[in-house]
Design brief:
By secondary structure, this protein is an alpha+beta fold. About 65% of the residues lie in helices and about 15% in strands. Strands 4-3-2-1-5 form a five-stranded antiparallel beta sheet. Helix 1 packs antiparallel against helix 2 and helix 2 packs antiparallel against helix 3. The protein is elongated.
């Protein structure tokens, strides 16, 4: 059974950009129409139907735009930096896009944005406290990926209060951990600890 050949990276990026931009235009148009002709504070049924239809269009086209634009940005980041950076960019872009879509839908449906912001702010504080360490590692991963203190395959010396002084080879830079090869085997160090440590590149020791 034959399979279709994968699209080249540039063609795939172009498709994502075009689809995302087109869907964004449709979502913005639905937002404008819903804001001008829809509403739930009037007596007639027609504006309510317009508002519901526009909210549905915003939701559908917004999701398509978010997924495609996040994928395009992810591929750009992956080609210019590392695959892990692309994953982080896609995660953040998708989350931000969905938040914008939800706010746009609520605005058309007449939901109070002030109350929504208050609820989102409270939930963000609670989640931020609960996931403080995980979020710190994710932001540290972004700093490491874009600052480039080291890359996969480098041999480095880490001076940290957590692990002491060790000479390691970098195997992987993930969203939460940096995986390194030590004399005793693989070691996963939290990104926040690596970011706070002193790091210097050293010559690779001769193989025995």
């Amino acid at each position: 059974m034959s399979t279709l050949p994968a699209l080249p990276v540039k063609s795939r990026q172009l498709r994502h950009w075009l689809t995302g931009i087109l869907a964004s235009v449709v979502a913005v148009a639905a937002l404008v129409i819903g804001s001008e002709f829809g509403g739930f504070h009037v007596g007639s049924l027609h504006p309510k139907i317009v508002a519901w239809i526009c909210a549905g269009v915003i939701g559908l086209s917004g999701v398509i735009a978010t997924q495609n634009l996040a994928a395009a940005l992810s591929e750009v980041a992956s080609t210019r930096t590392l695959p892990a950076a692309g994953s982080a960019v896609r995660l953040i872009g998708t989350a931000l896009g969905y938040v914008i879509v939800v706010f746009a839908m609520f605005a058309v449906l007449g939901v109070s944005i002030g109350r929504l912001l208050l609820g989102v702010g409270f939930a963000s504080v609670v989640l931020g406290i609960a996931a403080q360490q995980s979020l710190g590692n994710i932001f540290a991963a972004l700093v490491l990926l874009f600052a480039h203190p080291f890359t996969v395959g480098d041999f480095i010396r880490i001076r940290s209060s957590m692990v002491g002084v060790i000479d390691v080879e970098v195997c992987e830079i993930g969203l939460t951990y940096v995986t390194v090869q030590t004399d005793d085997g693989l070691l996963r160090i939290p990104n926040s600890a690596v970011l706070a440590a002193g790091i210097g590149q050293i010559e690779r020791p001769p193989e025995n």
